[in-house]
Amino acid sequence: MLNPLQLQYQGYYNIGNKHWLTTTQSEFEDLVEFITITSDQHFIGYGFPGTGTEEDPFIIENIILPYRSYHNGIVIINTTKHFVIQNCILNALLSGIFLENVAYGTATIKDNIFHDSDIGMSVVRSDGVKILNNTCGQFNNFGIILYYSNYSIVRNNTCYENIYRGITSVNSCFNRIEFNNCSYNFNVGIVLDNDLNDFISSNICNHNFRGIVVDDTSNSTVTNNLFCYNKDWGGWFGNWDSSNKNNLSITNNVFSFTARDGCRGDGLKSSLITNNTFSNNTLYGLVLYSDTSDNQIHHNSFLGNNLEGSSQALDHGKDNLWYDEETKEGNFWDDWTSRKPYPIDGGAEAEDKYPLNESFERISFQFFSLGSLLFFVCIFLYRKRKRIFYKE
Q1: What is the 3-state secondary structure of the chain?
Q2: Does 171 have pLDDT greater than 80?
Q3: pTM here?
Q4: What is the mean pLDDT of residues 306-316?
Q5: Are residues 134 and 228 in the same domain?
């Protein structure tokens, strides 16, 4: 039977049917791990300070590994003790840090630097891991990967110039990915793949090829993030499996200054898209493709998108609603001041029936109120003039 590290090399942890790793077999066979811990006793054997309790965790710190000197920098598998890995600089052939099957809430990884590795940090089948204030960049293939790892916190990390992805969470649930800067990656800043109940908040994903990909993921929230200046598009949300329902909440984000569309829905279903800003994108601010359905899009601002076209959004889907049915309020379109519905390009022949002004007030209500006021003023002046005439 292969051990976990051999399985790692042979593509045991795959995403999208592609191996994560780019190493050759000869490279793999020539090197060893720098630190390998496969039982609680190993922490003591290495002489790390601490006792392994929550109040007094084992401390692994201040380790510096030169360029690709080992398979993995620090490997920790099948442990139950609390530990902290901090203030290390780890460059390895595979992963700077590799965790698998560590007990819930026992691992904290903070203030480390990872670069020039296949994966900066791999967390596999380990729940409640805290990943804080790390830097993963300069030509890792992947920055941080969570695989079948739940209830983890990924916060305040910087993931830049990774070849493929900054932060990736796969087959996981209830993870919080927040306050990270995932910019200048050569492919995608953040990826969620087949996840459930994640919370993605206050991240910066600028100047990547693509900002965020949320695929086959449901009941998750993406809020208060910046997806700007990406070369292809800012966000992609949907399913490869067309039978899935997403129930995503995509709120208060900025999708701006992309070379193509600000945000795309592809197979996206039963999701809420509200209070976002779609601005200055070369093509559409928001695109919903033919296999999208039953999404609600309202109280968003569309500013300066698709300047050479006639609409700032595109809908080829089914039963997507471009306004709030309860309040009868739609979206703000800076190229529209008419009381008529705003037309949405695409085969769905959709429209925003209740476009708003920049203060998120109904345009139709505003015009009706102004017209009504003028009408009553005219009637008042007419009657007053009539009374004056008869008195004379």
Answers
A1: CCCHHHHHHCCCCEECCEECCCCCHHHHHHCCCCEEECCHHHHHHCCCCCCCCCCCCEEEECCECCCCCCCCCEEEECCCCCEEEECCEECCCCEEEEEECCCCCCEEEECCEECCCCEEEEEECCCCCEEECCEEECCCCEEEEEECCCCCEEECCEEECCCCEEEEEECCECCEEECCECCCCCCEEEEEECCECCEEECCECCCCCEEEEEECCECCEEECCEEECCCCEEEEEECCCCCCCCCCEEECCEEECCCCCCEEEECCECCEEECCEEECCCCCCEEECCCCECCEEECCEEECCCCCCCCCEEECCECCECCECCCCECCEECCCCCCCCEECECCCCCEECCCECCCCCEHHHHHHHHHHHHHHHHHHHHHHHHHHHHHC
A2: yes
A3: 0.86
A4: 97
A5: no
| 181 and 220 belong to one structural domain | no
Rounded to an integer, what distance in angstroms lies between the CA atom of residue 273 and that of residue 263? 11
Q: What average pLDDT does this structure show over 290-294? A: 93
Mean pLDDT of 115-138: 95
Same domain, residue pair 267 and 321: yes
Is 252 in the same domain as 333? yes
Q: What is the pLDDT of residue 370?
A: 43
Q: Find the range with the poorest average confidence among 103-112, 205-214, 332-341.
A: 332-341
pLDDT for the residue numbered 193:
95
| pLDDT confidence of residue 77 | 97
Strands 83-86, 233-238: pairing kind: unpaired
CATH number at residue 316: 2.160.20.10
pLDDT at residue 380, as a whole number: 45
Residue 259 located in a structural domain: yes
Domain that holds residue 135: 1-140+148-162+172-187
Q: Does residue 367 fall inside a structural domain?
A: no
177, 225: one domain: no
User: Residue 242 has what pLDDT?
Assistant: 60
